[in-house]
Design goal:
The protein is built from one helix and 13 strands. By secondary structure, the protein is mostly beta strands. An eight-stranded antiparallel beta barrel has the order 1-2-3-6-7-11-12-13. The radius of gyration is 22 Å and the shape is elongated.
Length: about 250
């Protein structure tokens, strides 16, 4: 919470600055192409990937149209991986579905501080949003029934005992049963670009994401007999970092 409050305070301070001050020279490009990796507080080590294409707004020397998309992993905060006592395999207890989100997006990019040629750091403010496509894929497990085992989607009624789970075959097993849940997202962020040349882009973006889906995204579900209950969200928020590379012309 403290991190989010600090981010919002920084946003207000930067927006209060004269956007045309403290720049060196003129912006020498009209188009920008970026690809990158995403890290966010709703995922594991790597959150996903992103692509962005920006074009200069006509009659606006410091504003760009911003088009792009991202593909990100979303994990439930209560996920816990177990090791099977019989096979040596591993699985996530009570996991019902994988969640991957595809986000086509459109917005604006505002150049706050423009760097000099071959020197300095460029600071941009980015505001974008759009439709979200939540891809819910059943989580499959290898479950022991008597003397046999079968690969089935986890179900809190049919496969309730985690002690009988031998392994998880991975995301690809249930991909054909993926369900799409629509939603909306909004992102704000600051981009720090420190490439040495105006036609190359290297840097990072730090920001905040808010997202809502048409229904609760059920990622985990406990059997009734355990007395436990997992809270599955319809609304999501996260802090993210994009590390990107690209070009300009």
């Amino acid at each position: 919470m403290k991190f989010k409050n600090t981010y919002l305070l920084l946003l207000l301070l930067l927006l209060s600055v004269d956007l045309f001050a403290q720049r060196e020279g003129e912006i020498e490009y009209e188009k920008e192409f970026l690809i990158g990796l995403n890290f966010n507080t709703n995922a594991g080590l790597i959150g996903g990937g992103m692509f962005r294409y920006a074009t200069l707004v006509r009659n606006k020397k410091t504003q760009f149209h911003n088009f792009g998309f991202s593909l990100d992993i979303v994990k439930h905060p209560k996920e816990l991986r177990y090791a099977s006592q019989t096979s040596g395999g591993s699985f996530i207890a009570y996991k019902k579905n994988h969640l991957v989100v595809l986000r086509p997006t459109y917005g604006r990019e505002f150049v706050l501080f423009h760097k000099g040629n071959e020197d300095g750091v460029q600071l941009d403010f980015i505001l974008n949003g759009g439709i979200s496509f939540g891809l819910l894929t059943p989580y499959y497990i290898e479950y022991q029934t008597g003397s046999t085992t079968e690969i089935v989607p986890y179900d809190p009624v049919k496969t309730p005992d985690i002690n009988l789970v031998i392994n998880s075959p991975g995301y690809g097993t249930g991909f054909s049963s993926t369900k799409v849940v629509p939603g909306l997202h909004l992102k704000t962020g600051f981009s720090f670009e420190y490439g040495h040349f105006t036609n190359k882009v290297t840097g990072l973006e730090v920001g905040f994401l808010f997202e809502v889906f048409a229904k609760r995204m059920v990622m985990m579900e406990a059997p009734v007999y355990t007395g436990g209950e997992f809270h599955n969200n319809q609304f999501f928020s996260s802090i993210y970092i994009n590390i990107f590379y690209g070009g300009r012309k």
